[in-house]
Specification:
Blueprint (H helix, E strand, L loop, with lengths): L1 H19 L9 E2 L6 H8 L6 H9 L1 E5 L3 H5 L20 H10 L4 E7 L28 H12 L2 E6 L12 H16 L6 E4 L16 H11 L4 E4 L5 E2 L14 E3 L5 H5 L4 H4 L16 H4 L4 E4 L2 E6 L17 H10 L5 E6 L10 H18 L8 E3 L21 E2 L7 E20 L7 E10 L2 E8 L6 E20 L4 E8 L6
Parallel strand pairs: 2-3, 2-11, 3-4, 4-5, 5-6, 7-10, 10-11
Antiparallel strand pairs: 1-9, 8-9, 12-14, 13-18, 14-17, 14-18, 15-16, 15-17
Helix pairs in contact: 5-6, 7-8, 12-13
Length: 512
Amino acid sequence: MKKFILILILLFICPILYGQNVDKNIVNPVRIPDGLSEDEIIKIASKVKPTKRQIKWQENELTFFIHFGVNTFTDREWGRKQDDSKEFNPTNLNVEQWVKTIKEVGGKMMIVLAKHHDGFCYYPSKYNDYSVKKSPWKNGKGDLIKEAAKACKKYGIKLGIYLSPWDIYSSIYGTDEYNELFRNQLRELLTNYGEISEVWFDGACGEGPNGKKQVYDWNSYYRIIRELQPDAVIAVSGPDVRWVGTESGIGRETEWSVLPYDVFNQEKIADNSQKEDIGQAFIPKDLMENDLGSREKIKNAKSLIWYPSEVDVSIRPGWFYHQKEDSLVKTPEQLFDIYFTSIGRNSVLLLNVPPDKRGLFHENDIKSLKGFKKLLDETFKNNLAYNSSLKSNNGKKGFNIKSLVDNDNKTYWTTKENEYTTEIEITLKKISHFDIFMIQENISNGQRIEEFSLEILQNNQWKEIAKGTTVGYKRLLRFPEVSTDKIKLKILKSRECPEISNIGIYKTAKLN
């Protein structure tokens, strides 16, 4: 009885308490009481939900990273302290070209470098003399972030910023004073350029010019962001979004957004007495593991948190532009494959496109991006399931099964109470050829599906053609082309009643 009461408190009271303060607190975890069984913990895991900012972020799907700076002109990936401010001098910088291209290929956000590890600021910071103020670009009057904000607003694209915590230029790096400098730079960026939708931190922490390493006061950084830009997600060394673990463009086939969160002492974090742990507070011990959130991983968790993954990859071998890589731009087909292994595996794709020395996206990059967009449009323009007949024997009363094909993430279909498996039979208007299946969960109520399969009817027998594990926001399965008019989606295992928002059946297009 005590366990039952604890579960009720956790499922209904705790989410309310934490939810009311989500914009004030750094994290929104659900604490696990001691002594619960594995099944009880799984039940709790099925109720962990994303914040509104996390849902909006997930719906972006395709976002873009812009690595552009001194390294572009010195032909390096990592800057050095002795690089001259005069190196930064684009001849024909046009941020509108970047944003317009991103808009045309379906991108929803652009994350721009405000400062990389070398410490050079691409806006006129009051707290750093190593910046565009000392550059010949626009006679020291330029402001890259201002131009990015203006272009993003014009074309309806969200703006994100990357401010490197590591600074190999600053003479006070490695001291408490540096944390105050960094906080001041954050305040500049979050107050002078309108709405910021994502603040992107990496965890790089090398030595500064004095040979010291910095103890980053992450907690204070997060509080500034929450105060000044409450709708912005903080990634990937942050509480809202995590790094998938590689820069290959390939996410996990089993990607849970609900993960164990074992560093839980809000009081210590708040008073900064837990500085040694805070840098790892939102990062699983090994991001390279194939399994981060399975039953085995969460059965002994102290608490659980919604912590979705971002897949970052560059369109070129390097992150900054190098002329020698002009022939090595990823092809439309390669980008199309990455779409399936990132967005199609419950992640957001952060695709880096580095402008060249002119300050423009190179022609080869644009050509590849447009080919990628054409592949996406031609492939996903016709959902064969739209006009199909749908039926299941255990749908919950009041939930229209046709909501599965209304292309609306806010509507969903679910099963009767306590029924965690289901079969949905899809009858197409005619025999059709296809090789892609799409399924989405209603993540606003959590992530639940653990295993599903797809079958087709051929020669009066059901034959399995594909199977998957997690779904989350979106899961895409590819398989050898088949033809039929009868398809069966089987939810084989789920942590709670599955809530499915959309399904789709498609045929891969080919570029001419």
